Amino acid sequence: MKGSLIILSFFAGGLLLGMYKLLPDELLQNDYSLYALYVLMFLVGIGIGSNKKSLQVIKSVNFKILLVPLSVITGTYIGVSVFSLIQNNLSLIESLAVGSGFGYYSLSSVLITEVSGEELGVIALLSNISREIITLLLTPLFARYFGKLAPISSGGATAMDTTLPIITKYIGSDYAIISVFSGVVLTILVPFLIAIIL
Amino acid sequence: MIPVLILMTAGIAIGWILHKKEKILKASSVLTNWAIYILLFLLGLSVGTNDQILNNFDKIGLQAIVITIFAVMGSILVSWLTYILFFKKDER
Q1: Residue A28 confidence (pLDDT)
Q2: Which residue of A61, A141, A161, B7 shows the fewest CB atoms closer than 10 Å?
C-alpha cells in the first residue's frame, strides 16, 4: 500500500506541475518516456528472472494450477468484452488492453500510454489500481460467496505480493502457492498480452 | 512494442543467471522503482498539459471503475466455476 501511495504521488506531482505549467517547455516537448520504458522493461525482466518465487513457481506447475491464471484471463476478457458492448467510449481492443493489466497498474499504464496515448493510459492506471483496492477491501466477501479462487482471481497479478497477505488470511495458507503462482504468471504475461492486443 | 518484449526477455535471462548476486539485484530493484516513478511522473505531466483529458477526468475515472467491476466480476465467475469443477472435491 505504501508503494502505491508513492507511485500515485509521483503521478499527482507530474499532473500538478503540468497543469500549472511549472516546468520549462523544453522538458515538456521532449519525450524521454520511451527510453525510461526500455530501461524499466529490462529491469522488470531481471526482477522476474531472479525472483525466488518465480523459481518456486516453475517447480509447482501442473495442469490444475495452470487453470487458475487461465480462468483469470478468460474471465477478465469476458467481463471487459461485455463492458465494451454496453458503452461507446472504449472499443473492444481498448477494453481488452486495459483489462490485460490484471492489477499491475504501473507497467500496464506506461505500456498502454506508449502505444495508445495518455487517455487510455490514465484509464489503465485508475482501473488497475481499483482492481488492487477492490481486492484488498472485498476479499472476505469474495472468499465467502464465490469460492477460494475468487480472491486470487480478483487480485490478478497482485496476488503474488500486495494482496497476498489478505488473500491467504481468508482462504488459508494452503492456497498461498496457488495465489503466488497465478500472480507470477499474470505478471509475466501482462506486457506480452498488451503487445499482442494493441 | 517488440523492443520492449525483447528487452524484458533478455532481462529475465540475465536475472536468472544473476539470481545469487544479492547486491546487483538490490540495485536493480531500486532502479526499477525509480524507473516506475519517472514514468508515472511523466504520464502525470503529459496528462496535466492535456486539457481534453483534464476536462473529462470525472468521465474517465468513472469508466475506469466500471470496467474494473466488469473485469473482476468476469474473472471471479469463471474461477468460481474452475473451483467447483476442479478444486472443491479435493478438499476435506
Answers
A1: 61
A2: A61
DSSP one-letter code for B56: T
Q: What is the per-residue pLDDT across A133-151, written as a single tens digit (0 to 9) for each?
A: 999 999 999 999 999 999 9
Question: Cell numbers of A158, please?
Answer: 497482485
Q: Which residues of B are less than 8 Å from A12 in CB distance?
A: 44
Residues of A in contact with B89 (CB under 8 A): none
Asked if A152 and A178 touch (Cβ cutoff 8 Å), the reply is yes
Indicate if the pLDDT at residue A36 is higher than 90: no
When scoring B1, B22, B45, B89 by the number of chain A Cβ atoms within 10 A, the one with the most, hence best to mutate, is B45
Q: What is the DSSP letter of A162?
A: T
**What number of other Cβ atoms are within 10 A of residue B30's Cβ?**
11
Give the CA radius of gyration of chain B.
21
Contact: B54, A19; criterion CB under 8 Å: yes
Among B1, B4, B83, the residue to mutate for chain A (most A Cβ within 10 A): B4
Lowest mean pLDDT among A26-35, A164-173, B11-20, B52-61: A26-35
> Residue A101: helix, strand or coil by DSSP?
coil
Domain residue spans in chain B? 1-51, 56-92
Using CA atoms, how far apart are residues A196 and A182, in angstroms rounded to an integer?
20
Give the pTM: 0.89
Q: What is the mean pLDDT of residues A60-85?
A: 93
**Chain B residue with the nearest C-alpha to that of A5:** B37
Answer whether B71 sits within 8 Å of A99, measured CB to CB. Answer: yes
Contact at CB, A71 and B15, closer than 8 angstroms? no
